[in-house]
Amino acid sequence: MIDTEKIEKAVRMILEAIGEDPDREGLRETPARVARMYKEIFCGLWEDPEIHLEKIFTEQHEEMILVKDIPIYSMCEHHLLPFFGKAHVAYIPRKGKVTGLSKLARVVEGFAKRPQLQERLTTQIADSIMRRLNPQGVLVIIEAEHMCMTLRGIRKPGSKTITSAVRGSFQRSEATRAEALALIKG
Ligand SMILES: Nc1nc2c(ncn2[C@@H]2O[C@H](COP(=O)(O)OP(=O)(O)OP(=O)(O)O)[C@@H](O)[C@H]2O)c(=O)[nH]1
Ligand SMILES: [Zn+2]
Q1: Catalytic (active site) residue 118
Q2: Would you state the pLDDT for residue 186?
Q3: Cα separation, 184 vs 10, whole angstroms
Q4: Which strands make up the sheet holding 137-146, listed edge to edge?
Q5: What gap in Å lies between CA 109 and CA 86, rounded to an integer?
Q6: So where does Zn(2+) get bound (predicted)?
Q7: Which parts of the chain have pLDDT scores under 50?
Q8: Equal fold, 4-44 vs 52-185
Q9: Which CATH architecture has domain 4-44?
Q10: Residue of 20, 47, 50, 79 marked catalytic
Q11: Which ligand 1 atom is at minimum distance from the Cα of 144?
């Protein structure tokens, strides 16, 4: 499990290293707060998000299912700063193998709550749905703003990074892909 005691010690050291006094009133509880926060935002490291896709229904619907505008918050693994935005997840079931809509958002959440790269997050969501549901196709798009590009470094607030992962029929058929993109835009 996440070692909150170790995080507390490390945060105290960071505070000392930047020249702060970790014992002054406002900072006294900060190491413990940060430890609780990291436990929360990195909890995805301790779960297998694919488990959410175990619950499958049979419903003869072999058309596209899209859950769009799923809010995402993740942490860039290079700087440990947040990146956040929206995820769009579409799939076309095979043989009526359909999952609960909330489960798609749970998979997104499970992979987001880790130190991440936006590309890896996108791929992991698509591949887990392919593995568990064996659908005709999957398309995942993530649009996000990276704090490491806005509050520091190159400082380009408002810039967005868009990543996609397309599998199966979405990869093969331009029309299927176009339909999903139009629904996401619309
Ligand atoms: N591909 C990818 N790059 C990311 C992501 N998050 C942050 N980065 C980039 O990771 C890179 C790390 O580059 P480095 O040169 O090692 O670090 P740095 O000196 O802090 O880089 P600058 O941000 O350019 O100041 C930067 O270009 C970031 O923009 C991500 O999700 N995907
Ligand atoms: Zn970063």
Answers
A1: yes
A2: 86
A3: 42
A4: 115-116, 65-76, 82-92, 137-146, 161-168
A5: 11
A6: 76, 79, 148
A7: none
A8: no
A9: Orthogonal Bundle (1.10)
A10: 79
A11: 31
Positive or negative torsion for Cα 158, 121, 116, 44: positive
Catalytic-residue membership of 76: yes
Residue 145, class by beta-carbon neighbours within 10 Å (0-12 exposed, 13-18 middle, 19+ buried)?
A: middle
DSSP 3-state of 11:
helix
Q: Looking at the domain that runs over 52-185, which CATH code has it been given?
A: 3.30.1130.10
Whether 148 lines ligand 1, by a CB cut-off of 6 Å, is yes
> Atom of ligand 1 at shortest distance to CA of 153?
25
Domain ranges of the chain: 4-44, 52-185
- Cα of 109 to ligand 2 centre, how many Å? 19
DSSP element (H, E) containing 40:
helix 30-41
Residue 8 catalytic? no
Annotated active-site residue in 29, 40, 59, 78: 78
Residues 27-48: tens digit of each pLDDT:
999 999 999 999 999 999 999 9
Asked if 115 and 38 count as a contact pair (C-beta separation under 8 A), the reply is: no
Which residue has a Cα nearest atom 13 of ligand 1? 78
| Inter-residue contact 66 to 183 (CB < 8 Å) | yes
- For the complex shown, is ipTM > 0.95? no
For the entire predicted model, the pTM comes to: 0.95
To the query of whether residue 146 is one of the catalytic residues in this protein, the response is: yes
